[in-house]
Design a protein that fits this description.
Elements lengths: L1 E2 L5 E3 L13 H7 L16 E4 L6 H9 L3 E4 L11 H14 L3 H4 L6 H23 L3
Parallel strand pairs: 3-4
Antiparallel strand pairs: 1-2
Pfam families: DDE_Tnp_1 (PF01609)
Protein name: Transposase IS4
Organism: Amycolatopsis japonica
């Protein structure tokens, strides 16, 4: 899952249980929908990408830079305290919100398309609840 700075899910993908997270980095970046707003060229991608040490590969840093995004990824082998944990908790909070839904906490479906539908629905409900909380009624 990739989120914005406030924890709203922008895109989510579904993979097998023993796949490494870094394999889904570029598909997630390409899955972010275009941002509509003012006239002119639409902003397609975020400006910065915060990630933990699991994404520390030069290959993926180059791919993220080629997409026009500045990667801010913690380096392996260096001591902790880089400050990226402040941004990482936003994604962990979004995962915690997804675990509110019982069907997403433990996968019971055999078919992956059904589970992906529940994942998309869960992300949509999180977005709707966040918008409802911030709307002026």
């Amino acid at each position: 899952m990739i989120t914005d700075g406030t924890g709203i899910p922008l895109a989510a993908t579904l993979t097998g249980g023993n796949r490494h997270d870094v394999t889904q980095l570029m598909p997630l970046i390409h899955a972010i929908p275009a941002v509509r707003g003012r006239r002119g060229r639409p902003r397609r991608r975020p400006q910065r990408l915060y990630a933990d040490r699991a994404y520390d590969h030069d290959k993926y840093r180059k791919l993220v830079r080629a997409a026009g995004i500045t990667p801010l990824i913690a380096r392996r082998g260096q001591e902790h305290g880089s400050g990226l944990g402040v941004h990482r908790w936003v994604v962990e909070g979004a995962f915690a919100l997804l675990h509110w839904f019982r069907r997403l906490r433990i996968r019971w479906e055999i078919r992956d398309d059904i589970h992906e539908a529940f994942l998309t629905l869960g992300c949509a409900i999180i977005c709707w609840r966040r918008l409802k909380a911030h709307s002026i009624c």
